[in-house]
Amino acid sequence: MGGAEDGAHAAGGPASNGHANGAVEEKDVLRRLIRRCAYLKYVEGRLGDRTLYADEILRDGFCLNMIDTPLCPLKVVTNLQEAVWDADIVINGLPSTETRVVFGEIGRYWKERVNAPVIISLTKGIEASLDPVPRIITPTQMISKAKVISVGEWTATNSNIYKSIRVKVKIYVTFSKVPLDNILYLGGPNIASEIYNKEYANARICGTDKWRKPLAKFLRQPHFIVWDNSDLITHEVMGGLKNVYAIGAGMVAALTNESATSKSVYFALCTSEMIYITHLLEEEPEKLAGPLLADTYVTLLKGRNAWYGHKLAKGELTLEMGDSIKGKGTIQGVSAVDAFYKLLSQDSLSVMHPEANKSVAPVEMCPILKTLHKILIKRELPTESILQAIRDESMCDPRERIEMARGQSLYRPSILGQPNGDVKA
Q1: Which GO molecular function, any one, fits this protein according to its record (predicted)?
Q2: Mapping DSSP to helix (H, G, I), strand (E, B) and coil, where does residue 63 land?
Q3: Which of 27, 41, 217, 242 is catalytic?
């Protein structure tokens, strides 16, 4: 596993097809190592005759976005089983789109464990599940409910032809070795590269008392203050939500030549939508206002999702390139746009539209989210449409949207997967 989201593949584990397509071909890797006279040390490392460290591997160019950044004294292994089978603490820096599959694989190695490890997830993406009821699935839930895939064989006999046929069957076994109590979420407001450079930063670790308090104390440094909170799932969802609107912020900045006024108008509109959405997710949304706005602010300033939106609007990237970008990793805001749009489009979550005086799906109260979905997912509109959305004369005052949320009983506990309303980790 990786120690940071951007550097997850520095450990040499198997990459997804998306990452593999953006990486150099195997022959090119071998040629580069031979030119650098570095091939032999990897052979020795694989034979166990030599210990390889992260700084060596980074210098050899195996990490796409942290060149010349030493991670020593981390020991680097090239096998997933070797990395995790007896680990006490595992850091998940995988994109949400890969978390379920990889932890299903890891579950095979943990089947014989007596004590479950502690997992700290850095992942900010989410998924939407619409059956049987609309709800959000977060990376920590994916890890806790990951399924181990095993393949068995059974023999079937056809009495008509008197022949036995051996058939391979996939068997899915629910993997519950790691209870949700052992899984934590570490989020912002911060930028990873600035933490590495020892710039002052804050973070928040969320989960049960047993692990979050000692881990918060363990992680705390003079330049890195770590708060702790019991509300795991909600903070995780908020971490995914801010990435949605960060992409639009990057577009607005690029299209208006960094106009401070346009960016502030967008910020007012998008945060009012985010606050509206938190009223659907949380019974007491006011307590999330500070952390949510702070995390959103820093992501809009310098996060990879804002960078992605900026590059799209400038034409330096295209949607056809996908959401896995060389040197940046996975842009998780793209899949989050789709997930939140699908979730909030469900009629079963309908809310009252105060002006139309009729029930509508919650997404109808979020025009920025709708526009981002048409740009990024449906690909019906150009990036310039984000400016039309914020300049729409029919757009209501952001304050009015917040008052709508406060004036209605919007809370839907089932969205976070707990029909009884018990949404805390």
Answers
A1: glycerol-3-phosphate dehydrogenase [NAD(P)+] activity
A2: coil
A3: 242
User: Residue 26 — very low, low, confident or very high, per pLDDT cuts 50/70/90?
Assistant: low
Give the DSSP H or E segment for 183. Answer: strand 183-187
Structural domains of the chain ordered from first start? 1-79 (no CATH), 233-416 (1.10.1040.10)
Q: What is the pLDDT of residues 313-354, one digit of tens each?
A: 999 999 999 998 887 888 999 999 999 999 999 999 988 887
d(CA 350, CA 414): 13
Note the helical H segments in 48-121.
Answer: 54-59, 80-84, 96-109
Q: What is the mean pLDDT of residues 357-365?
A: 89
Measure the CA–CA gap between 135 and 126, rounded to whole angstroms: 10
What are 57-85's pLDDT values in tens digits? 766 666 555 555 544 556 667 688 888 88
Is residue 287 part of the annotated active site? The answer reads no
0.70 exceeded by the pTM? yes
Write b or e for each residue in 8-25: b if 16 or more Cβ atoms lie within 10 A of its Cβ, otherwise e.
Answer: bbbbbbeebebbeebeee
